[in-house]
């Protein structure tokens, strides 16, 4: 969708340029382009769609509760009415009253008001130009107001200007339609100048909490996570961007990754999924300190950053489950096979008396593998601990996808949104992935097609999906030994030039092993799915010359944050 036209009477002041995105327009100081990264339009589009759908789900839950409460009150009134009649000594009328008279009482007890759809408050902790907050206010109908915060005075000045430009500021003496009374219109985007953590800590008591918190920093979101998990309402939504993939998705700065996220990164083609799991680990353990737990709704690896949407709830019983949803991984330095070491284990028993499920938590046994890779004899590196549970809520992603499909014209990046959501919706919950093209490099063979490998895995009784994180990759519940048997079968018909492989190469050890079974590469009907037909547009189309995470704006503040890498 091309952006909407700017207001006809707009005169762009000297020293500014007009930037339009979707419904919204902002004025950017010409000398400070770092204020805005236009390539993040996909991030903002996705966020609008996810918050809308989260809001609809939250409203359905509230409506259901409201109806149940109404029913409960009506029943209470009904039994009170019956009791009153009995007390009056009119026992013989009770039956009739129960069906007639009390119905009138019940009706009377029902509130006359219809259910009013709920509205919610968003806190954008790091707003820069305010473009994201402006879009939320204009494009999400359930928004009551957005608090747009930034530490920089220049950013806040820009925000105030942009809020006014989009007619979202407070107005005195407004005349309501069909009335002559003059009222004050509160601002739909409320600008706050200050430190993000201080603002969020001010909102942490249950009556001050907000419904949605958005963290979109330069680099890591780590310094803001403790405050964010506390100031979001029960069932509220936390949206987090981290652009420090040098820390999260390489092994160049393991000490920094551990300091920021409480886990170690890994080297491997699935390093971006591990980045998502490290951020989830940090969110989950931070929330757990306050008796809260997270439900990942969508965890996406995009271009040069990760973007996560998680629901935050309160329950000590759920917090306990985290230890069994957290794992470290031994990652082979030769062939990238990995072995999971879950930190804790949970045993369940059903009470014969109550039928309730009881959970018993135990420390785990280990290690899960010997000190050398059983497939290629290389050493292991340790990664994690990190979140080992599901990355997404498939039902939620399905709803966001439906929303985008029904509103394609409302998003500038809708083809890419559909592509990524389609793949994420079908993604298996199993941890990490492999790509046949990459593995063919390790085996020094010509690459089997994705379809061939998918068919072979399905014929061997495993499940398979794509991964949204890397085009051409597969997720499966098959162990590495089964995947390698498929490759060992493949090279029987597609021989490898062994003379080109050094005697000491891990590949030689891999290749020389016999397959444990003979793979069947014939077409399997399950190998074609919606997501296998999606050609994932992984990178922004027509990237700009300064494409990438962007640099900090000239912020007008002396405060410095630790370097991102
Ligand atoms: C990447 S920009 C935000 C971009 C914006 N969310 C968007 O979608 O256009 C990060 C902003 O965080 C602000 N910032 C950095 N540290 C902060 C802090 N401790 N409190 C508040 N704002 C901060 C910076 O001034 C900068 O404007
Ligand atoms: Zn290995």
TrEMBL record:
Q: Which residue ranges have biased composition labelled Basic and acidic residues?
A: 74-95
Family matches, as InterPro entries: SAM-dependent_MTases_sf, Trm1, tRNA_met_Trm1_C
**What are the recorded Gene Ontology BP terms?**
tRNA N2-guanine methylation
**Region entry Disordered, spans:** 74-98, 541-565
Example of a GO MF term:
tRNA binding
CDD domains given in the database record:
AdoMet_MTases (cd02440)
Keywords linked to the UniProt accession: Methyltransferase, RNA-binding, S-adenosyl-L-methionine, Transferase, tRNA processing, tRNA-binding
Can you supply one Gene Ontology CC term for this chain's record? nucleus
Enzyme Commission (EC) number: 2.1.1.216
Q: Per the record, what are the reactions this protein catalyses? A: guanosine(26) in tRNA + 2 S-adenosyl-L-methionine = N(2)-dimethylguanosine(26) in tRNA + 2 S-adenosyl-L-homocysteine + 2 H(+)
> Which Pfam family would be a valid example here?
TRM
The record's similarity note reads: Belongs to the class I-like SAM-binding methyltransferase superfamily. Trm1 family.
Name the UniProt record assigns to this protein? tRNA (guanine(26)-N(2))-dimethyltransferase
Which organism is the protein's source?
A: Phlebiopsis gigantea (strain 11061_1 CR5-6) (White-rot fungus)
**Lineage of source species:** Eukaryota, Fungi, Dikarya, Basidiomycota, Agaricomycotina
């Amino acid at each position: 969708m091309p952006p909407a036209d700017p207001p006809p009477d707009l005169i762009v002041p000297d020293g500014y340029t007009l930037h339009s995105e979707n419904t919204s327009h902002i004025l950017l100081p010409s000398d400070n382009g770092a204020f805005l990264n236009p390539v993040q339009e996909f991030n903002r589009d996705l966020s609008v769609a996810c918050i809308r759908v989260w809001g609809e789900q939250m409203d359905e839950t509230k409506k259901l509760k409201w109806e149940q409460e109404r029913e409960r009150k009506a029943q209470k009134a009904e039994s009170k009415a019956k009791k009153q009649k009995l007390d009056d000594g009119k026992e013989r009328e009770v039956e009739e009253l129960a069906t007639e008279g009390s119905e009138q009482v019940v009706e009377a007890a029902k509130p006359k008001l219809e259910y009013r759809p709920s509205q919610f408050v968003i806190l954008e902790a790091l707003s820069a130009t305010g473009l994201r907050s402006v879009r939320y206010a204009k494009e999400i109908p359930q928004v009551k107001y957005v608090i747009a915060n930034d530490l920089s005075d220049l950013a806040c000045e820009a925000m105030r200007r942009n809020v006014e430009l989009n007619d979202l500021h407070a107005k005195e003496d407004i005349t309501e339609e069909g009335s002559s009374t003059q009222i004050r219109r509160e601002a739909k985007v409320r600008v706050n100048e200050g430190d993000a953590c201080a603002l969020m800590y001010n909102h942490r008591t249950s009556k001050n909490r907000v419904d949605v918190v958005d963290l979109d920093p330069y680099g890591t979101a780590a310094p803001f996570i403790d405050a964010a998990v506390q100031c979001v309402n029960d069932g509220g939504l936390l949206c987090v961007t981290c652009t420090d993939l040098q820390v999260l998705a390489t092994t160049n700065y393991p000490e920094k990754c551990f300091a920021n996220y409480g886990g170690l990164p890994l080297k491997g083609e699935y390093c971006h999924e591990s980045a998502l799991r490290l951020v989830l680990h940090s969110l989950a353990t931070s929330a757990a300190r306050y008796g809260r737990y997270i439900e990942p709704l969508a965890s996406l690896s995009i271009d040069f950053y990760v973007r996560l949407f998680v629901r935050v709830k309160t329950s000590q019983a759920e917090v306990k489950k985290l230890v069994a949803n957290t794992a470290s991984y031994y990652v082979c330095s030769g062939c990238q096979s990995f072995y999971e070491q879950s930190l804790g284990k949970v045993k369940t028993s059903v009470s014969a008396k109550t039928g309730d499920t009881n959970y018993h938590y135990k420390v785990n046994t280990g290690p899960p593998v010997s000190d050398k890779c059983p497939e290629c004899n290389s050493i292991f590196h340790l990664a994690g601990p990190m979140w080992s549970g599901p990355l997404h809520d498939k039902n939620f992603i399905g709803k966001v996808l439906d929303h985008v499909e029904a509103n394609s014209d409302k998003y500038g990046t809708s083809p890419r949104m559909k592509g990524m959501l389609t793949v994420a919706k079908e993604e298996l919950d199993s941890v990490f992935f492999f790509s046949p093209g990459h593995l063919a490099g390790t085996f020094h063979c010509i690459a089997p097609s994705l379809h061939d490998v998918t068919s072979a895995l399905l014929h061997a009784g495993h499940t398979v999906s794509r991964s949204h994180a890397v085009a051409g990759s597969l997720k499966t519940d098959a162990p590495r030994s089964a995947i390698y048997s498929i490759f060992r079968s493949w090279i029987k018909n597609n021989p490898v030039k062994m003379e080109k492989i050094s005697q000491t190469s891990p590949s030689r050890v891999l290749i020389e092993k016999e397959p444990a079974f003979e793979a069947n590469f014939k077409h399997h009907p399950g190998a074609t799915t919606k997501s296998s037909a999606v050609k994932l547009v992984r990178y922004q189309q027509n990237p700009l010359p300064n494409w990438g995470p962007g640099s900090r704006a000239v912020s007008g503040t002396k405060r410095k944050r630790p370097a991102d890498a």
